[in-house]
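User: I'm curious whether this sequence folds into something compact or stays loose and floppy. Could you predict its structure so I can see for myself?
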Amino acid sequence: MKTNRYSRGFTLIEVVIALFILGWVLSSAIYMVHQYADERVRLRERFLANQVAWNHLMEHYQQSQRWISPGSSPSLKKKGVDEQAGQKWRWEIKLKRRWDKTSTAIRCKQAR
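Assistant: Here's the prediction. I'll summarize afterward.
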């Protein structure tokens, strides 16, 4: 039985090109998984930081609406450290009078 010399298998260049394409696809997939994991961590930290800020903003709002008496909430400070999800978060509240003198702007900054 005679075999054709071109039907023996893949050439070296075909194998190299196939491996290059496979490596490129796999590295792209790994990069995407890494990006997803990083973004998930960033979103979790941002969510926790927003919860810390929201808790303190709500305490100030409740006191301004007189839902709670001014002396009943000892945590109405301008800065401090809270623990949220096992992590310590620094926060700071800045109050600024608006130009119309009837309202107040409240800005809360938080960091880990």
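Summary: The mean pLDDT is 83. The beta strands are 79-84, 87-97, 104-111.
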